[in-house]
Amino acid sequence: GDKVVVREGVVDVWKFGPGAVATFGTGCKKSQILALTNWREVVFFFDPEKDAQNKAREYAEELTLMGVRVSVAYEDFGTKPNGKKRDVGDLEPHEIARIRSELGV
């Protein structure tokens, strides 16, 4: 489609489903940023940690300067019983469906 969601890892993309691509961590090479110009709209949906959100905004700014419509999505999924933060990989199918609907993919 015309929109792609960028996640931080392959497992998150598998869980998220069609319309998503992965980086390995928050790092992107210039060639990867250029590849994202193939879509009309890019949504960076990185983890809620400050460093990840800062990287997402940095990449969004680069793509915006290249004429791509970009947004940075943020959602805190709460915590697991052990106190660690939940990630997309921890979500149930109905939670993923809601997010996909909200993002329009």
Short description:
With 105 residues, the chain is α/β, with parallel strands linked by helices.
Helix content: 25-40%
Task: Give me the number of helical elements.
Answer: 4
Give start-end ranges of low-pLDDT stretches.
none
Q: What is the SS-derived class?
A: alpha/beta
What's the story with the biggest beta sheet?
4 strands, parallel
**Side-by-side strand order of the widest sheet:** 2-1-3-4
Instruction: Give the overall shape.
Output: globular
Strand content: 15-25%
Question: What is the total tally of β strands?
Answer: 4
Order of helices and strands: EHEHEHEH
* CA distance, first residue to last residue: 8 Å
Mean pLDDT equals 90
Cα Rg: 13 Å
